[in-house]
Design a protein that fits this description.
Layout lengths: L1 E5 L5 H15 L6 H12 L1 H9 L4 E7 L2 E13 L2 E9 L8 H15 L4 E7 L4 H7 L3 E11 L2 E11 L2
Parallel strand pairs: 4-5
Antiparallel strand pairs: 1-2, 2-3, 3-4, 5-7, 6-7
Helix pairs in contact: 1-2, 2-3
Length: 165
Amino acid sequence: MIEIVKCKSEDLDIVQKIAFETWPICYQNIISQEQINYMLDLMYSLNSLRNQLTEKKHVFILAKEEENYVGFASFEINAELNNTKLHKLYVLPEIQGKSIGKQLIKFVEDCALEEGQEAVFLNVNKNNPAIRFYERMNYKVSNQIVINIGNGYVMDDYIMEKKLV
């Protein structure tokens, strides 16, 4: 059984650990190892995670199976007026396919609905197989964006959206 719990500042090392275990596998055929390392440092250092939680007001949630943390998500209510942004969603590769991602995204959507949000949106790399997961969850490509993240790297993403109301 999976339990979804809100992440506190002292739990951010769990988020970091899952990201460092997940990213090299999930992105190995999409971006270079150098870009993976750069982005992990940029977005998943403990200082960066603390800033996302406290300053940017991102909500982090953890998926827990028995005593093990197996995935996480982060989201931001009203990232755009009446729209919630799903910033991150990762499940350890060895246990993907057990509906943990679905439970995490449903938790985010339920929180968004409770806050009167009209939609949830996210960015996903154009070559990421996770696009099919999001499509199964009724997300649709609404736009595309190229974001310069520094050091000569870009994120070449689709923006996907699901209307809640």
